[in-house]
Amino acid sequence: MFNQRRLKFTFVSFLILLSLILVDIFQLQTEEFDSTSQTIDRQNLDKFYITAPRGEIYDINGEKIVRTILEPHLFINLRKITNQNLLNYKQIIQYNFSELDNNEINEIFDSKEILSLVINLSNVEYEVRNNLLMNYDAFEILDLPIRQYIQNELFAHTIGYLGKPNQDDTGKFINALRNNQVGKNGLERQYEDFLSGTSGEIIFEGSKIINFKQPIPGNDLFLSIDSSTQSVVRESLQQGIELANKSFASSSEIKRGAAVVLDIETGNVVSMVSLPDYDPNKFITGISDFEYKQLDREQAFNNFAIQGLYPPGSVFKVVAYWLAISENIFPEELNNKDSNIDCEGSLSFGFDDGSQQVYNDWKLEGHGKVDLGEAIRQSCNVYFWDIALKIWRNFGNTEAESVLQDYSRELGFSNKTNIDLPFEKVGIIPDRELFEEWKISRPGLIREEGWLGGDLMNLIIGQGAITTTPLQVANAYRTLLTGENISPAVNINASKIINNQINVSDEFVDFLLKDLNSVTNKGGTAYVSFSILGNKANDIGGKTGTAQNAGDKNNTSWFVGIDSVSNPKYIVATVVDEGGSGSAVAAPVSRRIIQHLLGYDTTPVEFGEITE
Amino acid sequence: MINRKITLLGPEGTNLYILFQFIVFSIISWFTLFTSVELIEFNTGNILSRQIVFSLVGIVVFFLTTYLSIENLYNLINPLFALSISVLLGLLFTAPILGVRRWYDLEPIGLPVFIQPSEFSKIILVLFLAKILSSGVSLFVALAGILLNLFLIFIQPDLGTTMLLLIVTVLMLFLSDIKLRTSVLGLLIIFSIFFVFLELNLLGNYQVTRITEFFSGEDFSQQQSRLSISSGGLLGTYFTDSSLTEVFVPVQTTDFIFSLFSRNFGFFGVLILISLWILFFIRVSRIINKTEINFEKYLLSGLSILLIVQILINLLTILGFIPLTGIPYPLLSLGGSSIFSTAIIFGLINRVFIENNIVV
Predict the structure, then answer these.
(1) Separation between Cα atoms, residue A579 and residue A581, nearest integer Å
(2) Which tens digit of pLDDT belongs to each residue from B124-141?
(3) Chain-chain contact of A2 with B134 (C-beta, under 8 angstroms)
(4) Residue A432, class by beta-carbon neighbours within 10 Å (0-12 exposed, 13-18 middle, 19+ buried)?
(5) Cα atoms found within 13 Å of the Cα of residue A238, Cβ hemisphere only
(6) DSSP string of A457-492?
(7) How far apart are CA A400 and CA A58, in angstroms?
(8) In 3D, which of A410, A460, A471, A472 has the Cα closest to residue A431?
């Protein structure tokens, strides 16, 4: 039979036990609260953090390009150092590690940490280590992670480098302070929290270690970048820069350039190179002040692919190309893309205010009969000036006067591409508003009258105040071909942001590809650069660009290439700063990259032809 | 037998109070785990989302259990007990995980979870005991089965669960009209067996060290756990920033979750949580009084004792009064097996409520 009384007895006993427990908890949380806070504070002082191994980085083929290895390091527990044994320990260190000088040894003992790092033991024999550990109480051996950039400078700007965290870093990144290490640039910074891992902890009670928490390694990162393409791109760009130095007189050595290869379907970055570059390993092994300053002066730490701001020159003409077809705005008296103007090498025109001007095309003898496609092929300025004039005359001083700027912004110019890399720059698409602003903020730069028709004519051929990054240009071409402006990504698992969507018909894309194709073939501005490919160039496309710079700076050399117009896979954007004509330097650089992308043997970068 | 129509919320007459309790305890667990995700700064979302999925599946398990009528359940008990014993036997043939044979790894059949059969066998043991005590079958035959069950858990080894089940068994026997003299004698026998094991070195090494360490001084994790509870104060640190001061409670999302809970919600939080549980057991004990059926009386008190003893052992462990046991706090600790087994217990209690026409 069920005994109700015994059940009651049982439950009451439970209740009594529970009450005792609650009394204990109550006492803990009230009477002991203050002393607990002190204990915890003290305990927090008694902690030593061990840097966690950062996640490793792989390229698209699974090839490891950044690794973390663990190496044993000798530490000394300073709480076990007394006046009596100090000298003894100094002598032991001196005796065993002759590479440390007296100053360095003194610094070890001046550390404010509980455990002070003595030296990396990876090259020290096991017997020596063992002897130190067994006979000297104050020594501890801990594994510390060492970051290794396997390909040295090859991925410098994309991957970035590590450094000691400053106040800004520790505020931003949760693990930076305890790891005493933070990504300063590139992916190392962008994915700091993902890569860093959580530091381990050693907890002391006095000089005794009472608890040890293993560090938790960071996560591995997988990139869309292809190592072999990356090295071809870097070599090609280097050859292009060399070529520019050989071919042009320049006030200073030509050193800077950038190239980006985008996968058209996914928007992923297949390659990204910026020159000059640096070896990120130097930040691990130690970089001298002198060396750092020199690299900094050369702007080696800038990733010009996303931070270089250049006027795009004629590569920008595709914006007007798209505008002309979409808005049906063609030169005066033309009403479709296939009717011609007669280009005589210059354009004389007047504005309403009575001013008369003459603009000269880069080809003084003129391009002859030019329709929209021909204007792209031969990079005819006059045709596009005519379009600008039409916009100015029809819409000047109305809302619609900024139609070209609106189309540019649709393609992502003057906006972030939102690539998964830090410190991306946005560039400038000038308009009336900006000029009015500049009149106040940057007096002297802008003439009294503000925004004029001539500025629009400059803008349409990618000159004047406009600046863009190579990545923006590549992404804009991608947007025109796919109708979708999404954020390019280096991390293959990055979530993509849709920046914008535009309406491009299949018919338009076909026109554009056909006309870009004509550029690299007979009669096109890049024909000479691609002629080495013979028949294989038949399916390639691109657009040259040569942007003038203020002062005595050489022109900026641009080329945007497409590997195949029948089956477009990659967009290659190349810039050589002060590299002169786009068809002479940037085009052959892109040509060599496209050779590799198509699986052909690469041939050296050779001087193309000076056009624009 | 009472036939019930199946409705959307379980069989006709489903008691929403029990379901409500289950959901409230789950939400408390989510909130507590949420803070631990912030605290350990790692694997964000993972722990919490796992627990939320477990809780939601737990609700399904709760309903499934509710559909089983007490009569059908009664007839199923013997086969279930046999199944439980064989599953525990099967563990002997698995590869040890973390040095013990306590889990079935479901990875080979595509589920990323470990199943801990002892979590379910403890319910079956209570069912078995309830049946034996209410039916008057010869106790001695049944006791052999029960001891085998305990032995199989003991050799996993899982000292905590063995102790828990031993206490539950003794208390359930105590509720029957068994002579006090007999029970004291039984206890003496069990303790002498335990010491024989100890003498013959049949206890796992780590169990012995755990016990000897406990008596030789304060265990580090328990000491930290007390600090953690204490640092909660009256109101807890949940609403103030506390990220700067840290304590080092190990497995603070599973066995030690109560110390994390007290740190976050203070003594008031503890009072609220404990009160909710007391209210729950008061309701259950009212039905024990009300029902005429002996089996149901034993079943409800057995399940209550199982839950209460788990809670008490867990609290005594994290306060450092007894050695580490590895007993989770029901519905608060992270872990699927524990949630599902508690869901089954809640479902069984709910079914008894339904059959006694207790609505709301």
Answers:
(1) 7
(2) 999 999 999 888 777 777
(3) yes
(4) middle
(5) 10
(6) HHHHTT-TT-BB-HHHHHHHHHHHHHSEEE--BSBT
(7) 48
(8) A460
Distances (CA, A) of A13 to A6, A114, A320: 10, 50, 87
Integer Cα distance of A233 and A225 in angstroms: 12
**Which phi and psi angles does B15 have, rounded to 5°?**
-85, 110
CA A582 to chain centre: 23
Nearest to A25 among B42, B262, B298 (CB): B262
Indicate whether B45 pLDDT > 50.
no
Phi/psi for B161 (5° steps) reads -65, -35
Residue pair A480/A513 in contact (Cβ under 8 Å)? The answer is no
Chain B residue closest in CA terms to A212: B248
Region A250-278 average pLDDT:
94
What confidence category does residue B195 fall into, taking pLDDT thresholds of 50, 70 and 90?
confident
CA distances from A130 to A117, A141, B130 (A): 17, 10, 62
Reported confidence tier of residue A561, pLDDT bands at 50, 70, 90: very high
> Do residues A499 and A415 make contact, with C-beta atoms less than 8 angstroms apart?
yes
> Lowest-confidence range among A62-76, A301-315, A345-359?
A345-359
The secondary structure element, H or E, covering residue A271 is strand A269-275
Residue of B nearest to A211 (CA): B220
Query: For position A63, what pLDDT does the model report?
Result: 96
Among the listed residues A447, A456, A372, the one whose alpha carbon sits nearest the alpha carbon of residue A406: A456
In 3D space, the residue among A522, A520, A574, A513 whose CA is nearest the CA of residue A545 turns out to be A574
Please tell me whether residue B357 adopts helix, strand or coil conformation. coil
pLDDT digits (tens, 9 = 90+) for B238-273: 777 555 456 666 667 788 889 989 988 999 999 999
Residues contacting A77, CB < 8 A, separation 6+: A114, A115, A137, A138, A139, A140, A207
Whether B40 sits inside 8 A of A198 (CB atoms) is yes
CA distance A30 to A12: 26
Per-residue pLDDT tens over the stretch B80-90? 999 999 999 99
What are φ and ψ of residue A149, in 5° steps?
Answer: -95, 100
Distance (Å) from the alpha carbon of B164 to chain A's nearest alpha carbon: 14
A174: which chain B residues are within 8 Å (Cβ-Cβ)? 41
Selection from B203, B87, B92, B81 nearest residue B141 by Cα = B81
Contacts of B202 (CB under 8 A, 6+ apart): none
The number of residues in chain A equals: 612
pLDDT digits 0-9 by tens, A582-599 = 999 999 999 999 999 999
Chain B residues with beta carbon closer than 8 angstroms to that of A201: 248
Please, are residues A320 and A382 in contact by the beta-carbon 8 Å criterion?
A: no
CA distance A316 to A39: 66
Average pLDDT over residues A375-385: 95
Task: Report CB contact under 8 Å: B175, A41.
Answer: no
Identify the CA nearest to A562 among candidates A601, A588, A590: A590
**CA A562: distance to chain centroid?**
21
Confidence band, pLDDT 50/70/90 cuts, at residue B358: low
DSSP string, A81-150: --TTTHHHHHHHHHHH-TTS-HHHHHHHHH-SSSEEEEEE-TTS-HHHHHHHHHH-TTEEEEEEEEEEET
**Cα→Cα distances A570→A387, A420, A546, A563, A590, Å:** 30, 19, 22, 6, 11
pTM (two decimals): 0.68
Q: For the CA atoms of chain A, what is the radius of gyration?
A: 32
Q: Write the DSSP assignment of A488-519 as a string of letters.
A: -BSBTTPPPPEEEE----HHHHHHHHHHHHHH
More confident residue, B198 or A469: A469
Q: Give, in degrees to the nearest 5, the angle at Cα A186 between A181 and A188.
A: 35
- DSSP H helix total and E strand total for chain B: 12, 4
